């Protein structure tokens, strides 16, 4: 802790924040100089104004990875603090530790996992279904910039030493201003609100794209499963995120304007838990389903076979999505909702295991009788199956309501949800990045480094989290920064810490892989994996205007069977007009105004907020009366 | 065709048990036994009350059923990736397409349903029995005169226990073999009362009194913890629990 005297006010600054400032002040100018030297400003300016799905997707991936590194560093800080009993690592005890795990959870879910998945959807889905861009390219750019504004706002909190400190779940009344007065949880509210808006708009965009812009002949039942997963996920987002929006608004009113939705005579802190988990549980499937889709495509490609039980796969996606809305109270078995609610939600939770099990067996039987090629994406898929199954079985154990009262809020639960989220989402993202990297950059990631990445990450993962089941059963609650010598927890925690650093090393290999591939990677052909779906018919990297000639799809995996019989896919002579790409700075501008407006609201600078609100309204009006498609309409219908 | 396939499937499963998978199997079994044998050191598996005992049973029972699931999946995965891996010889082959198999698909839908149904029975029974209720509901606990009542107040970051004769303490002292009703109340945010050896946790919610019933079955000393994140020193919000004989408890109550 350091103290400054500034304008007669005493300013406290913890040394980790100072370190971050120093680092930023050193690195920032260095990066600016480097950009200038490399003459990269025009590229940046182009990307800032682009609406192209691949470029927007690439930005999603880049910033998602950046935030992933930040949140991963938080994880390593936590594991270092917990390595031995009664540890005093740097400043990370008490409130500081609480800030670290709150940031870790929130960042990983909303600013790493979500944008990385959405990035992959952006890049792959239009190419997989033969669309020439997302249905609403402008809206897509708006979504991205809203995510980035939310992410920047959230990270700004750390630099101002006011990180959120009520956990990623922000349970009331702890998260109300009665108990956490600093601006931290206001940052949480506004950062999630802004990025959540972006996510909701993406869902709309994906649904319309998939329903309206498929290539001729590509009926819904001929779509690759990643496209299907994206469609179902988008519907989940469309239903679940508005609930979060409402919950955040209520919390905002409680914090800023002294309402009492979550406290006092009329309100109840338990309302927050209901709202949060009605959003939060579907969110788990919003993270998992796209990964399921990615793995389905990868396993099928690298087994040289169609997906086994395609219809069963689609139906179980739908069922998981549907059941996902009926299980939220299994996060609340210890609240005291009563025996009726506890058993009801125990049973519905168990039911989800059935469609999930169907998917697992279908993946296994896709490999059966095939020719399994151990590429890096496939290795991630093979690691995914046992990992996710272990997360699934502990999920069933947790659904046993009476036993959950022992598991709840211990490291057993921490182990469980890392098994499911890392097992599916993060491994899925890694697999997807290796798999579609040729479409993103035109190069193929190095296999040897990829093996190091996968090996270290997966081994480290199991070392960290398998042992945590036992740590939890032995009485270690989550979100605690210390434990005592006599508690018989040292060995477990130390092993977890070692494993965490192995995962960190794995991620470094990944970063190194991206760097060397960028410098001197091998160029990829259009179809480097002997692919099955339409994205492998276009060049690598995917061109700005793919499918100049729109292919006609005559069956599932049409590209594969065309290759097998040595013919080319037929081409539609009179295709639907493509969505129109524009270069515009408006999306970035709107989002940054929203960011400044949020800062105004957080610090009660009402005038600033009002001015920003006015500007925002003007931008909306400007956009409302401008339609880049008008010239096209006029060309098509000259009489009117 | 199906029969032949099933034969091969079962054959392959058995052969896994016989050779390649033997080491892996042994490891998993070893782990399983370690968990059970080591149970006396694992706090949640070292029950000192009927409730904790029931919960430990559910933990073992669900783990046993889930072990079956894991073994099936792991052996199939190992088998398929091993048997069907790409070699120099089959590199250019195009495998025969088998895209569905009604009987297999029905069996891996129905067998999990049956396993879950088996698990659901004790789950529902025990959950119904031990789910606590807020006061105001008609509860047997309130009418149970022979029970000892202790008022528990959670406040950031400590616990206060008030006994029937008005004695207050920072530690929880309870007589063995007597029915205890804890009246859980919070003075500020949500906390959670947890002594793993006595049973699962119960959230303590402001503005509400929740009754937590437990009958300690054996004497002992245990660490109790707050298990719902409550702010700065959540990690330090602990208390000692002492289960003592009844006369010792009486003496302790009268002790100033």
TrEMBL record, chain A:
GO terms for molecular function: cytochrome-c oxidase activity; heme binding; metal ion binding. It is a multi-pass membrane protein. One of its GO terms (biological process) is respiratory electron transport chain. It is found in: Cell membrane. It holds the Pfam family COX1. It catalyses: 4 Fe(II)-[cytochrome c] + O2 + 8 H(+)(in) = 4 Fe(III)-[cytochrome c] + 2 H2O + 4 H(+)(out). The chain crosses the membrane at residues 12-35, 56-73, 107-125, 137-160, 187-211, 223-251, 271-295, 307-329, 341-365, 377-403, 415-437, 449-470, 490-515, 580-599, 605-625. Residues 39-554 form the Cytochrome oxidase subunit I profile domain. Keywords: Cell membrane, Copper, Electron transport, Heme, Iron, Membrane, Metal-binding, Respiratory chain, Translocase, Transmembrane, Transmembrane helix, Transport. It comes from the Bacteria. Pathway: Energy metabolism; oxidative phosphorylation. The keyword Repeat does not apply. Its EC number is 7.1.1.9. One of its GO terms (cellular component) is plasma membrane. It is an enzyme of class 7 (translocase). Belongs to the heme-copper respiratory oxidase family. This is Cytochrome c oxidase subunit 1. It comes from Sediminibacillus albus. The lineage of its organism: Bacteria, Bacillati, Bacillota, Bacilli, Bacillales.
TrEMBL record, chain B:
It is an enzyme of class 7 (translocase). This is Cytochrome c oxidase subunit 2. Binds a copper A center. It holds the Pfam family COX2_TM. Its EC number is 7.1.1.9. One of its GO terms (molecular function) is cytochrome-c oxidase activity. Keywords: Copper, Electron transport, Membrane, Metal-binding, Respiratory chain, Translocase, Transmembrane, Transmembrane helix, Transport. GO terms for cellular component: plasma membrane. Residues 36-134 form the Cytochrome oxidase subunit II transmembrane region profile domain. The lineage of its organism: Bacteria, Bacillati, Bacillota, Bacilli, Bacillales. GO terms for biological process: ATP synthesis coupled electron transport. Belongs to the cytochrome c oxidase subunit 2 family. It catalyses: 4 Fe(II)-[cytochrome c] + O2 + 8 H(+)(in) = 4 Fe(III)-[cytochrome c] + 2 H2O + 4 H(+)(out). PROSITE patterns: COX2, COX2_CUA, COX2_TM. It is found in: Cell membrane; Membrane. Residues 145-255 form the Cytochrome oxidase subunit II copper A binding domain. The chain crosses the membrane at residues 28-45, 57-82, 108-128.
